[in-house]
Hints:
The protein has 315 residues and is an alpha/beta fold. Helix content is 36%, strand content 16%. The protein has helices at 57-70, 84-94, 117-128, 145-157, 171-179, 199-207, 229-238, 242-252, 264-271, 280-287, 302-310, and strands spanning 2-5, 12-15, 35-37, 43-45, 48-50, 74-76, 102-107, 133-138, 161-167, 187-191, 211-215, 256-257. α1 (57-70) packs parallel to α2, α2 packs across α3 and α7 crosses α8 (242-252). The protein is globular.
Amino acid sequence: MKKRTLGDSSIEVAVPRSSGSPDPKGELPMSAIPSVTLNNGVEMPLLGFGVFQMHDSEECERSVYDAIRTGYRLIDTAAAYGNEEAVGKAIKRSGVPREELFVTTKLWIQDAGDERTKPAFERSLQRLQLEYLDLYLIHQPFGDVYGAWRAMEELYQEGRIRAIGVCNFPSDRLMDLMVHHQVVPAVNQVETHPFNQQIETQKFLQENHVQMESWGPFAEGKHNIFENELLRSIAGKYQKTVAQVIVRWLTQRGVVAIPKSVRKERIVENFNIFDFDLSPEDMAAMRTLDTKTSSFFDHRDPNIVKALSEATRPT
Ligand SMILES: NC(=O)c1ccc[n+]([C@@H]2O[C@H](COP(=O)([O-])OP(=O)(O)OC[C@H]3O[C@@H](n4cnc5c(N)ncnc54)[C@H](OP(=O)(O)O)[C@@H]3O)[C@@H](O)[C@H]2O)c1
C-alpha cells in the first residue's frame, strides 16, 4: 500500500496495488480495499457493505456471504435492523479470519443511557457471535446519548470495541458530545449522496478529526438517481455504471461508503470501483447536483425526533 492525496479533499487514503477485483477462480481475494486511518489509529476500509432493510434473514445471510466472498471487509448493521444474527452467520460461514473483517453495529434510541447501553452491546455481540466490535455507533442523536457515550467509552477502554462513533449527529450536537467527553467520536455516519453532498459537514468533521461515512449512497434509488443524465454521461466516459461513479465519487472524497444490495451482480458491481479515477472536472460537475437537503427526513424536525424515539425496534 502506498499513500496519496485525493484531489477533492485533504484526506489521505491508501491506494491498493491491485484493482480489487474478485478472484476469477472464485477463491477468496486478498483484501484490496483502500483504508482510512481513524483518529485513534484504527484502519477502516473505505468501502463496505450495508444491510439496512434486509428483513429476510436468509436473503441477508446470503448477501453478506456474497459480499465477503467478493472482497468486502466492512459490514454495517444495527440492532434496529433486526438482522445481526444473519450477519453473524454469514461472517462465520465466510471463512474469513475475524481480524480481517471490520464489523459495525449500532445502538438504538431506547438502549441509550448508563444502565442500558452495556447490556444492549452484549446482546448485539451475542447475535453477531463475536467477541468484540470494530465500530459501535450511536444510531440516532436522541435520548440519553451522554449516558450511552460514557458506557461506550468504558467498553472502548476495556478493549471490547476498537472504535466508537455516532450517526446522524448535526455538527453542533457532535461538538457538544466532543467537548464534554474524553473520547472523540471516530466516525459520524450521515446521509450522503449526490443530492445531499454534505460538503460543509465534511469540512467540519475533517477539522475535528472525525471520519465521515455515507449512508444511503444511492439515496435508496430516489430522484431516479440511476437514470440521472449527468451521472449517466459521466459513467459513459469511464465505461462504468452510475452506481460505480457514485461510490467512486464518495471514496475519492475520502468518505467511507457502504452501498447495500441483495443482488450478487450489483454487490460485485459496487465493489469494482478502484480501477478508475474521476477527473477533477467530473468531480466538480457532480457538485451541481447538490440540493443540500435530506432526501429522507430532517433529524432536527421535532415530529421526526418524536416518531423515531417512539418507534419500537428489536434491540
Ligand atoms: N445510520 C443510519 O441512520 C443509516 C440510515 C440508512 C442506511 N444506513 C446504512 O447505509 C447503508 C446503505 O444505505 P441504504 O441501504 O439505505 O441505501 P442505498 O445503498 O443508497 O441504496 C440501496 C438501494 O439501491 C439498490 N442498488 C444497489 N446497488 C445498485 C446498483 N448497482 N444498481 C442499481 N440499484 C442498486 C438496492 O436494490 P437491491 O438491494 O435490490 O440491489 C437498494 O434498493 C444501509 O444498508 C445501512 O447499512 C444507515
